[in-house]
């Protein structure tokens, strides 16, 4: 069984909610990313989204754009990110979902990407600029390698499109909580409960909510409505501020632990 499915089954059986941290691979470097993944798992992270740095990340706000730029300047590539997952697997079975745009995958080749990623234990992939109606080759190759393709739903998605997303998504559905790009916000988007209820009427697949969630209090609010909470920019901001300082990994893992306690 795919690790994502297994983890959500365990979470639902124990009536818990999932915490899914996001970090950009290679920011500030691969060794620190590897250390952070292990520290996040010890802090209670249930799954992990690992960003593949890209030069034109259209779904991301300035915080993750800067992280991508720093990683690219250090020579981080999709091939290097896959090799990083292989090293993470030495002592971790946390479900790992790569968040990449279409171009790096097509440049490697969909089949080669799926084969390489599946062989090292990648469990899922989120591709923000891959619409379900154009998704054929990549999901087909990924499923053959045991990798789930997870699609994004948004407040602007029509019922017809939500049905299409529900049908195509494997593992969980990534619900974008707001109209806009990633980045910490002061409040949870009004109307989120109604939007999730609309999606919930169409599926019993797990729903994880991301974009804009930046504090334990916000994570707690969202956890009451969804199966999982995704936090990215607020974590990446702490990594950016702590670069080069001793204890950075421990400090960021402490924030992840606080988020985990909030979603229980």
Mind explaining what this structure looks like?
This protein is an alpha/beta fold. The chain has helices at residues 3-13, 30-42, 62-73, 78-88, 102-108, 110-120, 137-144, 159-168, 192-200, 216-223, 233-242, 248-263; strands at 18-24, 48-51, 96-99, 124-126, 148-150, 152-153, 173-176, 207-210, 228-231. 48% of the residues lie in helices and 13% in strands. α11 (233-242) runs antiparallel to α12 (248-263). The model has no long low-confidence stretch (mean pLDDT 93).
Task: Decide which structural class fits the backbone.
Answer: alpha/beta
> Count the helices. How many?
12
Largest sheet: 9 strands, parallel
> What fraction, in percent, of the residue positions are helical?
40-55%
Elements, N to C (H/E): HEHEHHEHHEHEEHEHEHEHH
How far apart, in Å, are the first and last alpha carbons? 25 Å
- Low confidence ranges: none
Physical arrangement of strands within the biggest beta sheet: 5-4-3-2-1-9-8-7-6
Chain-averaged pLDDT? 93
Our estimate of the beta-strand percent is 5-15%
Give the CA-based shape: globular
Radius of gyration: 17 Å
